Amino acid sequence: MARIEWVSARLAIWGAWRARREDSGLGFPSTNILLSLGGGGAGGYRETVVPINELEAAETDRAVESLKLVKSHLYLTLQHIYVGNTGIRLCAQRMRRAESTIKAQLEQADAEIARWFDAKREAAEAKRSFTP
Prior knowledge:
Elements: H1 5-24, H2 54-65, H3 67-70, H4 72-83, H5 87-95, H6 99-129
């Protein structure tokens, strides 16, 4: 099984959103974006600010949170990789698992999140088609 590209992209955006939320208490960055327009930091390095759709990130957060009780190992893997920005090697060390296991868990998490979105879409379609 391979990673699901659209889920992986959503998770990357979600991870940045979640990290910002945990850093500043909201889903917003803790630094003023206008400050980053100047000359940048040390050595001229300037961090790229990725625009984040708050609604999409919050929806992805609900999908990830749905794993918390039923598949907690997948939930923790996503937290380490995307929110903690640890990478596979460090995540494997922290979770005391092989790197191949972490890669497999990322694939499993992608599949679970894709199923969550499919179920949500099907429920919305069923609700629209049911008109009393």
